[in-house]
Amino acid sequence: MTADPKAARLQKVFPVDLNKFLPEIVLRNYGRWVDRKFHGYGIIEHISETGERVFTVKIAMPPNARLSADTLEQFADIADKLGVGAMRVTMAGNLEILTDSLDKALKIREVVEKMGFPVGGWGPTLWGINSCTAYLTCTTAVVDSPSITKALGDALKPYFTGEVTLPAKLRVFVSGCPALCAGGSAMDIVIVGQWGAPPKIREEALGNCLPPKRVLEKVPESQVFIVQVCPTGALSLRREGDKVKLVLIPEKCINCARCKENCDAFDYDPENVGVAVLVGGKMSNTGKGPRLGRVLIPWIPAVPPRYEEIVAVVKRVVDVWREHAQPGERLAEFIDRVGWQRFIEMVGLSKVHAMYQKMPDYVRTYMYFRQRSDAWPRFRDGI
Fold first, then answer.
1. What is the CATH number of domain 200-267?
2. Around Cβ 153, how many Cβ atoms within 10 Å?
3. Class of the CATH domain delimited by 16-114
4. 381 pLDDT band (50/70/90 cuts)?
5. pLDDT tens, residue by residue, 20-35
6. CATH superfamily of 126-197+271-382
7. Which of 73, 84, 308, 374 is the Cys-Cys partner for 23 at CB 3.0 to 4.6 Å?
């Protein structure tokens, strides 16, 4: 009697024995790798004590590592015909194909580059740009992070392939909203979607977010959930007779959208969107160890389709680092060495940050560039 394949799929055994999915050449040399060589910035040769060699080719993929079924089948065919029948997606969102000779590795690079996918991402290069899914699956996205990632990837491609080398590795992450649920700010450069102005409250929908009237009468207004979710105290309840009104104080709002994440009564202007830019984060234990990024710019406009403002800032940060950093110095260590204020001057944002310092912390998301319509063209022309 033939086993039911559907029933067999339900018989999961954890943890999964990953050895079952490794190619024979990798299994034979498991734990025996003694050396490696780089062939350009996209091919690594792994050398075993047995004398066998495995070559890994790293290929940049679209944002979110999302491929059509046809393209994925093409990569699988390449892995079967030119490789050892194995490929994987890295945490940086790149595709790696394994093969057993340098000639085949070079042929893989030639084929995938003809398909439009660059090869690179090791050594002193851009290792990858990750992003969340944003509008594809998220209900709280502020900006379309995959399209920002695509614009950045196009602009930074020479840094991935090694056509333009960097002082050290570079990682970039793009989050569609301040929640950063698809990754933290511990990367060299982080782009975070931010609303450009406080939300409006639809009173007719607010009842769905408040406890019943009998509960409201007994619970202090400050302990009502929708009030508590605001990190800056910008929301408060006011009683007007037998009615309860939710009041928002715009001067305290930092546009984090935590209220909207918990209640559909908050409406932001979809035309007033932008991003914050954080720099100097990293996950590795090199230098002074892991750290979170620091806010370089609290808000700049996100203007599709090419997002010139965001690209201009990111390229400026990378080029300043590339020009002045020491060999092997990550962006975080470079900022530590030159100092935060000096780094701001080098990037060209001294006047912007001088303005921020005069503002209360919770107001600094109101960006200099939004208040000065001529600021972005001058900044962009200057860099």
1. 3.30.70.20
2. 22
3. alpha beta
4. low
5. 788 999 999 999 999 9
6. Sulfite Reductase Hemoprotein, domain 1 (3.30.413.10)
7. 84
